[in-house]
Each structure stands twice: as structure tokens, then as C-alpha cells.
Write a sequence for this structure.
């Protein structure tokens, strides 16, 4: 009976050792895959952002004085895109957003990011502050948080809108306190 228990313990130890080794290897592979996926998403997002930035540049060039009659053939795929095109002053309107997402290369990048296929409504979801324009930070954060199932976009839109409203309320509260303080100083002799 002791020999049987001894053999059983050896078999169990070998099984546990193999399981632990497999778990460590699996964890290393998972971490490496996660790292590769993060890099792929970052590169794809950067390429998509370059397309938005270049389109914004072309669209704003059309609005310059003296060029109002000029027509630019909107083909983002054929434009030169650089990281320098991306800056914080970019403001993508809904009209421009809808033009950009019609491009096949933009559609491909959005597919690579696993964005919902109902892309015509993405603008309203991503425009958290309701300003009617998307700035670079707002665009990137919205696109990255929307990735995945379509139903997730509703929750993300709510979250982004709530954060924007919280910031607006805090600013309003500070302005109100400052106004009250100024008013009280003027009323008191």
C-alpha cells in the first residue's frame, strides 16, 4: 500500500510540474501576444489619425480666402501623411468625418481596429462634449474605447458624455463661486 501511495505521489508531482510549466509558458505567450496586439493597435490608430489629420488639412485649405471656388479631389489615400499633420488644433466636423469614413483605406483601418460597422453614427457617440467637432484627444479616446461589440459604444458614449458634463459642471461651479465672491465684495461697503 505504501508503494502504491509513493507511486501515486510521484505521478501527481509530475502532473503538477507539467501543469505549472505549461501555465508559465502560456502566461509568457499571452503577455507577448498582448504586447504585439497593443503595438498593432497603436500603429493602426496612428495611421487612421494621420488620415484624419491630412483630410482636415485639405479641408481647411479649401476654406482659405481666395480658394473658395477651388475644388479639391478628396482622395486621402493619395495624400502624403506624416506625424507632423497631427496637432491639437485639429477639429473634425461631422461633415468632414462623414467624408473621411467613406474612403476605403479608412474603412480598412477601422475594420482593423474592430470598430462598429454603423460608422455614420460614430460621430455622435465620440463627440462626448456635444461641441459638434472632434479634437485629436477626443477622437483617439473615443475610437479606442468603442472597439469591440456595437452595444459597447452606447456605454462608452454615456461615459464620455458624463465625464464631459462633470467637467462643465465643475467649471460652472468655480465661475459661480467667483461671481458670488465678486458680487459680495461690491455689495458690502
Amino acid at each position: 500500500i505504501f508503494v502504491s501511495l509513493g507511486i501515486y505521489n510521484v505521478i501527481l508531482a509530475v502532473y503538477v510540474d507539467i501543469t505549472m510549466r505549461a501555465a508559465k509558458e502560456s502566461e509568457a505567450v499571452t503577455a507577448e501576444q498582448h504586447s504585439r496586439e497593443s503595438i498593432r493597435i497603436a500603429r493602426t490608430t496612428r495611421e487612421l489619425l494621420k488620415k484624419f489629420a491630412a483630410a482636415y488639412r485639405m479641408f481647411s485649405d479649401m476654406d482659405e480666402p481666395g480658394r473658395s471656388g477651388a475644388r479639391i479631389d478628396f482622395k486621402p489615400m493619395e495624400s502624403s501623411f506624416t506625424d507632423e499633420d497631427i496637432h491639437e488644433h485639429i477639429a473634425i466636423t461631422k461633415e468632414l468625418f462623414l467624408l473621411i469614413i467613406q474612403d476605403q483605406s479608412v474603412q480598412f483601418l477601422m475594420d482593423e481596429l474592430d470598430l462598429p460597422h454603423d460608422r455614420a453614427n460614430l460621430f455622435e457617440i465620440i463627440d462626448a462634449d456635444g461641441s459638434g467637432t472632434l479634437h485629436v484627444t477626443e477622437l483617439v479616446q473615443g475610437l479606442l474605447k468603442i472597439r469591440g461589440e456595437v452595444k459597447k459604444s452606447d456605454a462608452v458614449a454615456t461615459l464620455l458624455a458624463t465625464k464631459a458634463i462633470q467637467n462643465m459642471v465643475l467649471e460652472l461651479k468655480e465661475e459661480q463661486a467667483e461671481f458670488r465672491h465678486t458680487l459680495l465684495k461690491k455689495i458690502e461697503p
